[in-house]
Structure formats: C-alpha cells, structure tokens
C-alpha cells in the first residue's frame, strides 16, 4: 500500500511557486489572487475583523 501523501498536490514544493492551468491543452492567463484592503490607515469595518472566541 502506497503513501497517501504522495498523491497530494502539496507534496511537490514546486506547486507553491508557480501557477499551471488544470488543462494544458487549453491554457489561460492565470493571475495570483491578491488581497486589497478596503480601508486605508483607519480601523477596518466590523465585518472585516476576525474575532477570537474562547473555547473554554
């Protein structure tokens, strides 16, 4: 029985630094997703703040 980790895409370190189309016969322009905040030097809106909930 082979290792299940061997079939994961993250097993290959090259997967983290390049983008490849899922279908090489139909290439498309891929761009990395970049987060752009909707606020500048002000407190973020309440709907963009993650809060920690106590689990105790």
TrEMBL record:
UniProt region (Disordered), positions on chain: 20-56
Official protein name in the record: DET1- and DDB1-associated protein 1 domain-containing protein
Pfam families xrefs: DDA1 (PF10172)
Domain DET1- and DDB1-associated protein: 3-49
Domain of life: Eukaryota
